[in-house]
Amino acid sequence: MRLLEGKTVLVTGGSTGIGRAAAIGAAQHGANVAINYASSDDKAASCIAEIEALGQKGLAVKGDVALPETASDFVAQAVDAFGRVDVMVSNAGICPFHAFLDMPAETFERTQRVNMHGAYYMCQAAARQMVAQGDGGAIVAVSSISALVGGEYQTHYTPTKAGVHSLMQSAAIALGRHGIRCNSVLPGTILTEINKDDLADADKRRYMESRTPLGRLGQPEDLIGPIVFLASDMAAYVTGAALLVDGGMFVNLQ
């Protein structure tokens, strides 16, 4: 079953990690896909090649999500290429691990601008286009288990992920009258570019695996099903919700 047949899906941070998996997964389900990316030209090109190999149309648009004009440009280019926007997957994010007491202001502020401001601008731009189209749509934001728990070296990051989760709750109220659904996914520890250095420590990796009832850390592809579901008509009565995708880590407090 191709759950996104004929739809146009936009994905931020789409050249690597969860964003790349979501973009290719959307194409597997019949969508044309536009990705935003920050710097990895080769990886963005290879993502589009995989989308096109699946028989779908792809578009890569480079830009810094921290800037509001990047969002309006991304949506405009997607509409020029594909005619409309049906789904926005707001995924772009950074997490430069750092201690709290000597956190550089720029590290804190850059994390806020990319993760929180970027999500706001992208979701707002997509929603404006969906409202103009007049037939609804879906927004899926990639939050994190970090919206619910703290992290010693993530004091700049966890508030942004709580903010993204909260943004989807409020946007669900603001946009429900337009038939636009807004939900978030909360990944646990997923093996991506963000945490590859942190998890290079074999002891820490084994510890994180031991905390996960399913016995392994996540892969970006583990997010495809949850994201596609929330983007699809199968979730037609789901809005303002948050779906943990963490192998059970959050509930394993004992």
UniProtKB/TrEMBL annotation:
The catalysed reaction is: L-rhamnofuranose + NAD(+) = L-rhamnono-1,4-lactone + NADH + H(+); L-rhamnofuranose + NADP(+) = L-rhamnono-1,4-lactone + NADPH + H(+)
**EC identifiers of the protein:** 1.1.1.378
Q: Which GO terms describe its biological process?
A: fatty acid biosynthetic process; rhamnose catabolic process
Enzyme class, broadest EC rank:
oxidoreductase
Q: Give one Pfam hit by family name.
A: adh_short_C2
Q: Any idea which GO molecular function terms this record carries?
A: oxidoreductase activity, acting on the CH-OH group of donors, NAD or NADP as acceptor; quinone binding
**Keyword list, A-Z:** NADP, Oxidoreductase, Rhamnose metabolism
Domain called Ketoreductase: residue spans: 7-193
Pathway assignment reads: Carbohydrate degradation; L-rhamnose degradation
- Tell me its family: Belongs to the short-chain dehydrogenases/reductases (SDR) family.
- Name of the protein in question: L-rhamnose 1-dehydrogenase (NAD(P)(+))
